[in-house]
Write a structure and sequence with these properties.
CATH architecture: 2-Layer Sandwich
Strand order of the largest sheet: 4-5-3-6
Helix content: 25-40%
Low-confidence stretches: 1-12
CATH class: Alpha Beta
Distance between the termini: 29 Å
Structural class: alpha+beta
Order of helices and strands: HEEHEHEEHHE
CATH topology: Alpha-Beta Plaits
Length: about 160
């Protein structure tokens, strides 16, 4: 079984009004990542938009004693996922507050931006399928109203931009 095929089933962009929200990868997007045949490190550009109040309805086993913000739920996810992320050799290389675009759709605001570097696509998938990591993933789901995850690969500065 391929890594992409074994990736947990995910919700395709959920429609809220006429806007699609993206919270998890799909089997197709996982397969497309594998088919890129990236060798070496991959960095994930994370754009995150938090819920005002975290929604634990899909993960009642993780519900806090009192309601918390989406940002607070995401902080719980980061804290509880840290040992699994570190064990996989993954590191956050950039963490920053978002805001409105300078060039982009007006009103499309991201709360948090992260660059997360993985040693390889294979190690990313291994971490994402780790049972202990999956046990805390509900905090992330409760926290997020919407997200984007873009795998990016560093290119040598001497390589022309016209190369594929």
């Amino acid at each position: 079984m391929s890594m992409a095929a074994s990736y947990p089933a995910a919700k395709v962009g959920t429609l809220i009004g006429s806007v699609a929200m993206y919270l998890e990868p799909t089997q197709d997007s996982g397969r497309a990542l594998v088919e890129r045949s990236i060798s070496g490190p991959v960095t994930m550009l994370n754009l995150l938009r938090f819920r005002e109040v975290a929604d634990y309805s899909s993960h009642p086993e993780l519900v806090p004693t009192a309601p918390i913000s989406g940002r607070a739920a995401y902080e719980r996810y980061v804290a509880e996922a840290a040992p699994h992320v570190e064990a996989a050799g993954t590191e956050v290389t950039f963490l920053g507050d978002g805001g409105p675009y300078l060039i982009g759709p007006p009103g499309d605001i991201w709360d948090l931006v992260m660059l997360v570097r993985h040693r390889s696509v294979e190690e990313f998938f291994a971490m994402a399928q780790n049972e202990a990591y999956l046990a805390v993933l509900g905090h992330r789901a409760a926290a997020l109203e919407d997200s984007r995850l873009l795998p990016i690969v560093e290119r040598p500065r001497t390589r022309p931009m016209t190369d594929n």
